[in-house]
């Protein structure tokens, strides 16, 4: 190998070392970016008591990247996590959505709020109960019942009728969230609750007022438990003393005494 070739090889080695040094120096000088995390934020101002559903959650919420170290505890990472939750305060545009009791509530979990799962247009009305009203302890949340009432107007005969049909039972005894019960509200494998002192029904406003009126002195309430798959109203007639005499005694009951 002549002197010229040796010089070229040596020069190439020096250039390779120099290039490696330059690359290393450039990489070492590059800025290091802190880690980020995905968080859910409000797209726009969200009023209090807004219910997130699968249909509207993407209209209210979106995601962005935030510094991982600055993400607060309870921050949601996907809008779908907010479905079935209700805002308890106003959320401002760009605000990180936190799954905490002071921001959101739902009908399940340790922080369940019963008002979050009352259907729109309904109210929950609690009435005193005993084994008769709880159908010997068989009644449970999610069942549907018919409300039977007997009312005695002042100075008039009593009348019995099915006041409301297909009413949903909201709770039997003190409220318990589904997670704390560890059951599905329509489960048939849950032991009956006996000795409950209250039953809470889901009614519309007019029904709630009517039932409250009937429960005053002169009124008596009974609950008839429906079969799980029974739907629709059943035509019924009010029962009065005269009508019952007709049923029990036949046509002779209608004839006047000689």
State the shape. rod-shaped
Biggest sheet layout: 6 strands, antiparallel
CA-atom Rg in angstroms: 35 Å
As a percent range, the share of helical residues equals 10-25%
The proportion of strand residues reads: 15-25%
Q: Give the count of structural domains.
A: 2
- SSE order, one letter for each helix or strand: HEHEEEEEEHEHEEHH
Low-confidence stretches: 179-192
Brief rundown of the structure:
With 258 residues, the protein is of the alpha+beta class. 22% of the residues lie in helices and 24% in strands. The chain is rod-shaped and about 135 Å long.
What is the topology?
Layout: H1 3-29, E1 36-42, H2 57-60, E2 61-67, E3 86-87, E4 104-105, E5 123-128, E6 144-151, E7 159-172, H3 178-181, E8 198-203, H4 205-214, E9 219-225, E10 239-240, H5 241-249, H6 251-254
Antiparallel strand pairs: 1-2, 3-4, 5-8, 6-7, 6-9, 7-8, 7-10
Textual characterization of the structure:
With 258 residues, the protein is of the alpha+beta class. The chain has 2 domains: 36-105, Antifreeze-like/N-acetylneuraminic acid synthase C-terminal domain (Type Iii Antifreeze Protein Isoform Hplc 12, Alpha-Beta Complex); 119-247, no CATH class. The chain is built from 6 helices and 10 strands; from the N terminus they run H-E-H-E-E-E-E-E-E-H-E-H-E-E-H-H. The chain has helices spanning 3-29, 57-60, 178-181, 205-214, 241-249, 251-254; strands spanning 36-42, 61-67, 86-87, 104-105, 123-128, 144-151, 159-172, 198-203, 219-225, 239-240. The strands form 3 sheets. Strands 5, 6, 7, 8, 9 and 10 form a 6-stranded antiparallel beta sheet that branches. Strand 6 (144-151) and strand 7 form a beta hairpin. It starts with a helix and ends with a helix.
